[in-house]
From TrEMBL:
Natural source organism: Rhodopseudomonas telluris
Protein family per UniProt: Belongs to the pyridoxamine 5'-phosphate oxidase family.
Record key words, sorted: Flavoprotein, FMN, Oxidoreductase, Pyridoxine biosynthesis
Protein name: Pyridoxine/pyridoxamine 5'-phosphate oxidase
Residues annotated as domain Pyridoxamine 5'-phosphate oxidase N-terminal: 40-157
EC number of the protein: 1.4.3.5
Binding residue positions for substrate: 64, 121, 125, 189-191
Co-factor remark: Binds 1 FMN per subunit.
SUPFAM superfamilies per UniProt: FMN-binding split barrel
Gene: pdxH
Single GO term (MF): pyridoxamine phosphate oxidase activity
Domain (Pyridoxine 5'-phosphate oxidase dimerisation C-terminal) ranges: 170-212
Pathway: Cofactor metabolism; pyridoxal 5'-phosphate salvage; pyridoxal 5'-phosphate from pyridoxine 5'-phosphate: step 1/1; Cofactor metabolism; pyridoxal 5'-phosphate salvage; pyridoxal 5'-phosphate from pyridoxamine 5'-phosphate: step 1/1
Length: 212
């Protein structure tokens, strides 16, 4: 008979994560484990914004970097998410790693990355992805897949040789967290949850253990 007591650590749990004092350090540990266990995109995260009427919007994006200043992703400025973030620069993120039975929830303020950061990341993308960024009018109506393929072909023809510059309407955002919650599955829904919070980035983190 398996041990399903609350005190039992499953094979997916290495130590007591609720003892951690730095959320970014704990996030780095969990992301590293997810990178070895998730079949696809361990850096995938749900991004939640709100429209002008206050109706929530959510979609999956890829985190392309993080540090003590926040979590970074890239997209088109004129996309739906870009317009919503421009009007209300606040967002929530969710990482869900099913293979580890873990979640990380993040809430905070949003600001554009610098031009230099956007240029540097765009230069690392595969050329076909760079061409696609020029050809796509993200979130706008598209009459057919063929029309999109034609647009891609036209952009590709202009950039047969040499580097593809970053489109002026393509950039990134950094979510600076005020809340980071770590959640780990336990038997009988008796989960472990801890939340790190701070009033501003200049303030120290406060840690609170939460009921599941």
């Amino acid at each position: 008979m398996s041990d399903t007591s609350i005190k039992h650590h499953s094979e997916l749990t290495s130590g007591d994560f609720t003892a951690a004092e730095n959320p970014f350090g704990l996030f780095a540990e969990w992301l590293a484990e997810a990178s070895g266990s998730e079949p696809n995109d361990p850096n995938a995260m749900a991004l939640a914004t709100v429209d002008p009427d206050g109706l929530p919007d959510v979609r999956m994006v890829l985190m392309k970097g993080y540090d003590d200043d926040g979590f970074v992703f890239y997209s088109h400025i004129a996309s739906q998410k870009g317009r919503e973030l421009a009007a209300n620069p606040k967002a929530a993120l969710l990482f869900h790693w099913k293979s580890l039975r873990r979640q990380v929830r993040i809430r905070g303020t949003v600001a554009p990355v610098t031009e230099a950061e956007a240029d540097a990341y765009f230069a690392t993308r595969p050329k076909q992805a760079q061409i696609g960024a020029w050809a796509s009018k993200q979130s706008q109506p598209l009459e057919s897949r063929f029309a999109f393929e034609q647009a891609i072909a036209k952009v590709a023809a202009r950039h047969l040789v040499g580097e593809v510059p970053r489109p002026p309407g393509w950039s990134g955002w950094r979510i600076t967290p005020s809340r980071i919650e770590f959640w780990h599955d336990r038997p009988f829904r008796l989960h472990d949850r801890i939340e790190f919070s701070r009033d501003t980035p200049a303030h120290p983190w406060t840690k609170t253990r939460l009921y599941p």
